[in-house]
Amino acid sequence: MSLLEIKGLTKQFGGLVAVNDLSLSIDKGQILGLIGPNGAGKSTAFNCVAGVYAPTQGQIIFDGEDVTGQNPWDLCKKGMGRTFQIVKPFASQTVLENVMVGAFATTDNRDKAETRAADVLDMLGMGDKKDLKPGALTIADRKCLEIAKALATNPKLLLLDEVMAGLRPTEVDEVIQIIQKLKSKGMTIFVIEHIMRAIMALSDEIVVIQFGKKICQGEPEMVARDKNVIKAYLGE
Ligand code: ADP
Ligand code: MG
Q1: Whole-prediction pTM value?
Q2: What range(s) does the ABC transporter domain occupy (predicted)?
C-alpha cells in the first residue's frame, strides 16, 4: 500500500510553472529518489507535499487521507517529517534542545521529548554531542542534526532535501549509512539529492523531473542509462 500518493501536482508562481502535472507514489518502507537539474522543481514539489505551498492543482494523499492544502504543522503531527535545504538550527540552544523542538510536535511532555531526542541522537551516533551548540558541529553533524529534528517528530514519512550538499565523500558515505539504517528500521523516505552515487545507492526507485515535468521513472540502473536523463544533466 502506498504511504504517499501525488496526483497531477501542479504549482505555479505567477507565470512560472515550477511543478507540472507530477504524479508518483511511495510504498511503505520504500526509498524514492527525486532528481533533476537545478530549478527543476524538486524542492517546490516537497514544499507542496509538506504543506508549505498549496498546490495550484492536484492532490496529495498521505496515509490514505487527502491532505491537499493542509498546513505544515498539521501534516507534521500526522507523520510527515522533513528537513530543509537551508540548515537553520537555533544557535543559542544545545543540539539536544534543537532536537527536542522536533519532539514537541507530537508530545507536550518535556521528559518524553528529551528521551525521544536523546534516543534519536544516539541512533544517529551523535549522543556524545548533545550538549554542544550547533555552531560547534561539523557540517556533516549539522546535516545529521537536521535529520534528527525531523526524526524526533516520529514521522511515518521522512522527506530529505539535499542533506548531503557540501559534504566530503567520506561524510556522504556516513549519511548514506544513516539513511540505510533508517530504511532497515522500516522508515519510508522521499529523498532529493544531487549527489548521484548517493541517490543510486539509496533509492529503490527514482523519479526524474525537468522543468517541473516527470521525464523518467524506474530503478536506478534503468534511470542511469536513460537517454532523456543523460541529456537533461548534460544540458545543465
Ligand atoms: P529545485 O529544488 O529542483 O532546484 P525549485 O523547486 O527550488 O527547484 O525551483 C523550481 C523553480 O521555481 C525555479 O525556477 C525557482 O526559481 C522557482 N521558485 C521556487 N520557489 C519559488 C517561489 N517561492 N516564488 C517564485 N518562484 C519560485
Ligand atoms: Mg531544491
Answers
A1: 0.94
A2: 4-236
